[in-house]
Amino acid sequence: xxxxxxxxxxxxxxxxxxxxxxxxxxxxxxYLNMSQYDRLSKLVQVHFPQATLGxxxxxxxxxxxERYEEAFLTGESELAAQTxxxxxxxxxxxxxxxVAIKNSPHPQVSPAYVQKLRDxxxxxxxxxxxxxxxxxxxxxxxxxxxxxxxxGRSQRHLLAGFTDLDxxxxxxxxxxxxxxxxKSLKSTxxxxxxxxxxxxxxxxxxxRVAHRLLITPLARLQxxxxxxxxxxxxxxxEQAGATDEIGRLAKAFWEMTQNLKITTVSKKYVDNIIxxxxxxxxxxxxxxxxxxxxxxxxxxxxxxxDELLGKMAATLLTPEDESLxxxxxxxxxxxxxxxxxxxxxxxxxxGRRFPAHFSGSAMHHEAGSLEGIICVFNDITELxxxxxxxxxxxxxxxxxxxxxxxxxxxxxxxxxxEAQREERIFxxxxxxxxxxxxxxxxxGHEIGDLVLKTVASRxxxxxxxxxxxxxxxxxxxxxxxxxxxxxxxxxILAKKITKTIAAPVAANGFDCTLGVSIxxxxxxxxxxxxxxLVNKADYAMYLAKAAGRxxxxxxxxxxxxxxxxxxxQRDHEL
Amino acid sequence: xxxxxxxxxxxxxxxxxxDYILVVNKENPxxxxxxxxxxxxxxxxxxxxxxxxxxxxxxxxxDEIHERFTRIMLQKSPVQLSVYWKKILYSGGGMLPLAVxxxxxxxxxxxxxxxxxxxxxxxxxxxQVKKVETR
Lengths: 574, 135
Description:
The complex is a heterodimer. Chain A folds into three domains: 7-182, no CATH class; 276-380, PAS domain (Beta-Lactamase, 2-Layer Sandwich); 396-573, Reverse transcriptase/Diguanylate cyclase domain (Alpha-Beta Plaits, 2-Layer Sandwich). Helices cover 63% and strands 14% of the residues of chain A. Chain A has helices at 7-74, 77-103, 111-131, 142-231, 245-263, 267-276, 295-301, 305-308, 327-336, 381-395, 405-422, 436-443, 445-462, 487-502, 530-546, 560-573, and strands at residues 280-284, 290-293, 339-347, 353-364, 370-379, 426-434, 468-473, 476-481, 505-507, 510-512, 515-523, 552-554. Chain A is rod-shaped and about 220 Å long. By secondary structure, chain B is of the alpha/beta class. Helices cover 41% and strands 21% of the residues of chain B. Chain B has helices spanning 2-14, 35-42, 63-74, 78-90, 103-112; strands at residues 20-25, 32-33, 56-60, 98-100, 116-121, 129-134. The longest helix of chain B is centred in the first third of the chain and has 13 residues, at 2-14.
């Protein structure tokens, strides 16, 4: 079915068909014109001269008989003699005609007929020449009269013969002309019909050929393209010849579709990915409106798709973070590349806040212009919880739940900065339980731990909000007392603490009684560095312990010299 | 009768100046001929009697009678008649009529030839021939 060959050869085939048709029509026209030319030539060269000759013969004979008659009537023997001269001419004409008729392939008059006429005429001429020369005695000579009458009869016979000959030749000429006319008309009609038929046939053939060779393969290719655009699948074309451009095009298209299948991801595939990804995907236009959202986003924020499309992306954020989707975001993304895991707080439809990681990157058209921002939101509520736990583990004492050393130093730094800024004082209390080691050793770690927990919770109860209890390790605790009105307030609290701790602790059926020694340092009087404040409080605590336990001691000027000596010794020992 | 005689006399009187009459052989049944019949016979247009026998023309070349006859009967001059007959002869249509030199020769020929017809001076009529009336 699929005729091979290049488009050029296909077109040439069409042209060839047209040329053959044209050739046939031209040959027919040529043939008919040539045969007409032949007929007309014959008419001019054969029939026309013959007809003219026949006419001349008749005319000459009539002239001769008229002259003889005149000579006969007038007795002019001289005129008769002159008239004899025409006989030779006429005889020659008859000879010429006879030869012409003998030579013509289809003589219209039989040569025998002409020959007889010629011979009759010669006899007549012979006798006429003799008779008309002696006409003066005609009245008296019956023989002469008989001869004249005889001549008259043969003359009539000859006249009839020549008239008939002339008529036949002329009739033939006229019939030939008529026939030519008819044939010309017929060939004109025939040629006209032939040309129309050839034209129709050629048109039809070219149409069929073009349809078969060009249009059908192209239509099939087009159909294949349509199929591909609908179903992403193309029909493998038939094997094409090396010179078949359309076949090669179809093959190339098929190969392209196969390559596309391998190398490109369908929209469906991408949609699938987008819908099934764990993060919330939002595509934001350069003007800040939401263009695309996935299912996760809708579930995360509690919206329907219709409620979000076209809205400002800032809707999804808390007022604190709304500025994220400002014009500067685009600039930032363009300049610094994609933004990764920026922590933000999101706002759901019903007003719930949740922490999220925001990632954004600019999306460009192939031409380079900005198409939008691809945003991914990841709910990090769980992550935050875990982080919080970790943070707690790092900053709080696992046993007692109060702050550990690290957090203590951090908070102490904060307190120093705040107090400096607000120009106020605060106190640092350093606590060490009395006789705890004995309890721990005699009653076991479990009781020891219980005692520590109880102490910690009692301390928490005593301090005000904004103050902080921390466990420094072992049986040592610290308390930061912020917002003191006066140094005396610290001492009041320290006294309260000693009383609280002195209350017995019920442990395993026993009541354990223990005490606490407290050292106090004050900011800014005793220093403005954590270490100094801690050391000074610690030193004061030792002084309290030395003073007889379960009491407190505030670091004062009088302790300074011993404290310095003590700390120098300690540095030296270190 | 008288009137007829009178007319005859009259006509005889007028024919006195050498008038002609048509004559045929006595055995010829024809008694009278019309003017037109006479004309046709002498111009060669009627060549047979009613009994299918050929007519033999005899021209009486007696000058006076001949001229009268040709001029009155045939409306031609003797020369014209001569040319007329020559033309017929020339075209092979017939022979020249027989010519005799006077009434006697004409009577003699008609009296001896059954199919002959001629014209003679009225006075010359005798038993040899039969007169034919013309109208």
